[in-house]
Amino acid sequence: QYRSIICNQSIISFSLEMTIPVIDFRKMAIPIIDFSMLEGEERAETLAQIANGCEEWGFFQLVNHGIPVELLERVKKVCSECYRLRAEGFKRSKPVQLLNKLVEEEGEAADAKRLDDVDWEDVFLLQDDNEWPSNPPEFRETMKEYREELRKLAEKVMEVMDNNLGFEKGSIKSAFSGNGEHQPFFGTKVSHYPPCPRLDLVNGLRAHTDAGGVILLFQDEQVGGLQILKDGQWIDVQPVANAIVINTGDQIEVLSNGRYKSVWHRVLTTSDGNRRSIASFYNPSLKATIAPGTNKDDSAAALYPKYVFGDYMDVYVKQKFSPKEPRFEAVKAL
After folding, report:
1. Which tens digit of pLDDT belongs to each residue from 47-71?
2. pTM for the complete prediction?
């Protein structure tokens, strides 16, 4: 006889003669949440699903999030075309040069090491005030429209977090803006991870937690590679067509006083695919003061220091790929 249980959305079958089921963490699924249900009779259940995604996973995927599929298709098209125009430049980039050199050295020495301090990634950043690619011609208009939709979605997600944490509506957004005195940072990182000839020698993107607030990722629906660290195991963030992947950064961990955790994640290289990744970051202003938030029912002691976000970023850029706890200790001492 066999029975099944549901464990973090994975169905596990086991014999009644067995005492402990064997869980394959690699097949565990990141929660997928229908965001449109917030407006209906299933609002309470949807709020609970998002709370679980924040508390137990640090990552979850939103479907029916309100961003038109037609716009998402245009985003995929213009970003892929933009990379095609940049591809020759990547072939001359530092990661490629370093890998070629390492492969040459490998033939001469038995102890050639991995490239542990670079990422196999072509990347550029879009902000409101920096220079954007001019080709293809429709890139600017499409990405401007997309970023506005993502900004609104991020603020809706933060309001849900406010609700679930028992904060007043708008608390997280207010914290990020220094109570309205400053403009929160909103940036979009457009990345491609081209095919790599030596998967054993280089990472797509090294393991790290994100420094900021709410991260919204529109990932490739065909080429995987993104993984999160959960319970000591690396788990795939499964591609889902037209979903937006949400993850919480270090500042949400602080504001929630540790109820929500920023989670270690990485991107693996692939040999037969060119992974597209479009990540948008809704972060505090560098001048905003960040500290654990409180609600009327919360009497817990603050587990994190109070600091200015710009000071945290000064520490983070030097320690991005190192454990996050020393970052909080370092900024506490400033």
Report:
1. 999 999 999 999 999 999 999 999 9
2. 0.89
Amino acid at 316: Y
Angle at which helices 139-165 and 43-52 pack, to 10 degrees?
A: 100
Render pLDDT for 156-209 as a digit per residue (tens, 0 to 9). Answer: 999 999 999 999 999 999 999 999 999 999 999 999 999 999 999 999 999 999
Residue 305: asked if its preceding bond is cis (omega within 30°), the reply is no
Distance CA 159, CA 181 (A): 19
CA distances (Å), origin 77, targets 87, 136, 137, 260, 329: 15, 10, 12, 34, 44
Token pair, residue 103, equals 């492969």
What tokens were used for 184?
């929160």
Q: Is 147 helix (H, G, I), strand (E, B) or coil?
A: helix
Give dist(CA 36, CA 46) in Å, integer: 9
